[in-house]
Amino acid sequence: MTAEAPPPPGPWRQAMRGLARNRASMAALAVLVLITLSCVLAPLYARDIARTDPFTSNVAGSIMLDGHEVDIMQPNDNPLHLGLSPIGPTGHAAYLLGADSQGRDVAARMLYGGRNSLLISSCAAVLCLILAAAAGIAAGFFGGLVDAVLSRLMDIMWAVPVYLFAISLSIVTVSQGLKLGPFVVEADSLLIPIVIIALVYVPYAARPIRGRVLALRQAEFVTAARCLGVPRWRIVLFDILPNVTTTLVVLGPLLMALSLLAESALSFLSIGVQAPAASWGTIIQDGEGLIYTRPMVAIAPGLAIVLVVLALNILGDGLRDALDVRDAARRSS
């Protein structure tokens, strides 16, 4: 008896194999994992390594460097030594990247800020995909009046510049909080930037989803299901949604990158993450006044944003190539 041939791998397993062969995508994924783990371990770094509280002002404090006590706030490097500037990068565990104008450890604040920035951007991307999938599937599958209303609503949102729309919503919610019936969200809650950023990017994700659903609606398996009298909700859940999943997966990293940029911009303008919490955007704002004396305060979080956005874009390109059916067919032939 001849042994039966193993079943061919499924499309998702093939896609993951294709992604694993993409060295650039794997390097980008490794960078994202490393940055995420570093931010998750922020309390451990602040407590056991830097031994500092990144949320408490320490302008009168000092640290030990190479056996010498060094003030955190030091005289300016001018002929008269007027004014004080925070200590620069020390190269040691304590104040590795220096201090900000309040004498707080920049490295520890960066890790804590990264937790909020990554949390907001990832949650905003997921919420945006959920809302965009609901709007795109409804518009593409049901058509008619539903499509007309949702498409015009998306066009109106699309016509308003993203950052102007986000800033307008943020100004209102930061000053008053968010009240949805019996639910009240405080002005300093991270839910506010998550919801705002998710809303402003819904039109950008809903359009490609709607286009994909319009093509699927004419597919033979959907037509056969309709002829058999299958309820619409079952067609949407079991025929349309699984075939839109690849589009959602590809859009995920791109939306997270856009959300991270939007969150950083809003926090830099003081209408995103509110004190005493920190994000990469608020740390850049802290370093704005020190750009000529202690540039690392603003440069370090800026580089972190660049690295994460670049890694997300490379990973998104890798996912798109791995999930492209036509490209996969060419590779297998």
What do these coordinates show?
The chain crosses the membrane at residues 26-46, 118-146, 158-178, 190-206, 236-258, 264-284, 296-316. It is a multi-pass membrane protein. This is Peptide ABC transporter permease. Helix 6 runs antiparallel to helix 7 (191-200). The protein has helices at residues 11-20, 23-40, 42-49, 106-142, 144-159, 162-176, 191-200, 202-217, 220-227, 232-268, 280-286, 296-323, 325-332, and strands at 62-65, 68-71, 73-75, 84-86, 178-180, 183-185. It is elongated. A hairpin with an 8-residue loop joins strand 3 (73-75) and strand 4 (84-86). Strands 1-2 form a two-stranded antiparallel sheet. The longest helix is centred in the middle third of the chain and has 37 residues, at 106-142. With 333 residues, it is mainly α. It has two domains: 18-85, no CATH class; 106-332, MetI-like (MetI-like fold, Orthogonal Bundle), CATH 1.10.3720. The protein contains 13 helices and six strands. Mean pLDDT is 86; it is low at 326-333.
Determine the N-to-C terminus distance: 30 Å
Number of domains: 2
In CATH terms, the superfamily of the largest domain is MetI-like
H/E element sequence: HHHEEEEHHHEEHHHHHHH
Question: Residue share in helices?
Answer: 55-70%
Question: Could you say what the CATH topology of the largest domain is called?
Answer: MetI-like fold
Q: Rg to the nearest angstrom? A: 25 Å
Query: Poorly predicted ranges (pLDDT <50, ≥5 residues)?
Result: 326-333
Residue-averaged pLDDT: 86
The major β-sheet equals:
2 strands, antiparallel
Shape: elongated
Total count of helical runs of at least 4 residues: 13
> Which percent band covers the strand fraction?
5-15%
